[in-house]
Amino acid sequence: MNADTPESRILPFIRRHTGEVSSIRRTERGFSSDLTALVDCEKGRFFVKAVRNRAGGRRTSLIREQMINDYTSPVSPPLLWEVEDDWLVLGFEAVQARTADFAPGSPDVPKVVDLVRRIGGLPLPPVAEHWTETRWDRFTADPAEASLFRGDSLLHTDINPSNFLIGSTRNWVVDWAWPTRGAGFIDVALLVVQLIAAGHDPGDAERCATRCPAWHQAQPGAVDAFAAAGLRMNRAYAERNPEAEWVKAMVSACQAWTDHRGIVVS
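RE: above sequence
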């Protein structure tokens, strides 16, 4: 193992939790951390997320994930241990599961919808009281629209296939890197966009959303305002990252959704 890699650098800090480590295998995704990996070791297997212990976005997101875990246990794997030294490392239970398939006709889709519904049923924990969701505010037409995104629901905000794991007896939502407080319909709306991006007709995607109570609790005009803001946001991302295919896919999905709802977005 190269001495300059995150894998080797975290070893001295995690051994008291792992014992001797036999392998550290990076996962495919993990953009919010310096390292996401499966660790096989003397004490079993753990899913590990690690960042260099420096002030900034990555550390902040991992601290949030650490703080929220006790409250998301009905739908997410438990945090088993943590280390804070030169590195901040979280060790989660490693679950036997695969990433969800959002495609039309997939048997995973009802399971994903159920998980989003269950997220909406989680109480807002005290640690999230001041984590107000504001990321879509600057993409609204006016402050009145932004006010429609306020609420007292705990939000995941990173709804995508990689963050939904399907197991043989249980399913999970992972990567709680940016949980916030806001209107409950937001996670459901994000699911709609992801379903469209996966090939669903916008009407079918919205029919999936109707299985979630939070969808029906949105204030009048809130979903339209959010759909328009999402299109503006992803257009802005696409302008800054013209080579990012996933951003182009999000723009196309958001455009299809606003067209379906009869919204003209400038």
